[in-house]
Design a protein that fits this description.
single chain, mainly beta, seven-stranded antiparallel β-sheet, six-stranded antiparallel β-sheet, 1 helix, 22 strands, elongated
């Protein structure tokens, strides 16, 4: 006679729980179980006689959460008959794919092959990625950004604007590197960059010493930055280095970019010549 029982086994594949039920006097059994969270059912019939010759297992059916099939009883135990013990029925798992059912007296009733292989429980889902943090507005613009923006200005013009200038006559310099704003978007944030020249360093290109100004210069006759060439020469190119400071406005607040940035440029080459003397 089979009775209700519950057995919990721990094997390499995971924990197996079996709940066996049968009505008193019935040879029909039903086991419900799970391996690592995957459920299966085993049902069948047991017949035999308790005369000391053992009980032979009959056909059973095993179905699993991932596969199903028929399990055939294939073993018998030959033990000494006697009165039924109060010990509950037990089940052993061979660690691979067979379940061995024992009666209350510890005699093996049958061995059932469990079709398929129970799958391990699904691992817990990976935690969702945290939402990206909003950028610190004070770091949206760097000196590198300022250098790239400032490099868009710095064209040098000379006056008179021609390929040859005369010795002993002032040549006026000017540049478009003046204070201005630049609009851009950084990490989705609209930003206005305010660029301001701090100082201009001019190099005449004839070997003379460089000099500085706080003005971008202008054309003759109102320009304030000029140089007089004393000797004829060719391939003269005026050099200019502008030192910039910058700030920027983002989300209603204005921030200063630390330090300054120096950007250099060269004018188109020209020649310095003597004026021709004409006799009347």
């Amino acid at each position: 006679m089979l009775s209700s029982s519950a057995v919990l086994l721990a094997v390499a594949a995971g924990a197996i729980r079996l709940d066996s039920t049968a009505l008193p006097g019935s040879s029909t059994f039903s086991w419900g179980g799970s391996v690592s969270g995957v459920s299966f059912n085993i049902s069948g019939e047991v017949s035999g006689k308790d005369t000391g010759s053992g009980v032979t297992g009959q056909a059973g059916t095993a179905t699993g959460g991932h596969s199903s099939g028929t399990a055939r009883g294939r073993g018998a135990s030959h033990g000494v008959g006697g009165a039924a013990s109060d010990a509950p029925p037990s089940v052993q798992f061979d660690g691979e794919n067979e379940l061995i059912y024992f009666d209350q007296n510890g005699r093996r009733i049958m061995t059932l092959g469990v079709p398929g292989q129970a799958q391990p429980a699904a691992s817990a889902p990976a935690p969702a990625a945290s939402a990206p943090q909003a950028p610190d507005p004070a770091t949206l613009i760097t000196q590198r950004d300022v250098a790239q923006l400032a490099a868009q200005r710095g064209t040098i013009s000379i006056s008179p604007a021609r390929a040859e200038v005369l010795i002993n006559k002032p040549v006026y310099y000017s540049t478009d590197a003046t204070a201005h704003n630049a609009e851009l978007t950084v990490l989705g944030v609209p930003v206005t960059v305010h660029l301001t020249p701090v100082i201009y360093t001019w190099s005449p290109g004839d070997g003379s010493a460089s000099f500085t100004s706080t003005s971008p210069g202008g054309a003759w006759p109102n320009g304030t930055i000029s140089h007089t060439y004393a000797h004829p020469t060719t391939g003269v190119s005026v050099g200019l280095t502008v030192t910039w400071s910058a700030s920027f406005t983002a989300m209603g607040t204005t921030y200063q970019v630390p330090g300054t940035v120096a950007v250099s440029s060269q004018s188109a080459p020209f020649s310095v010549v003597e004026a021709e003397t004409r006799l009347k």
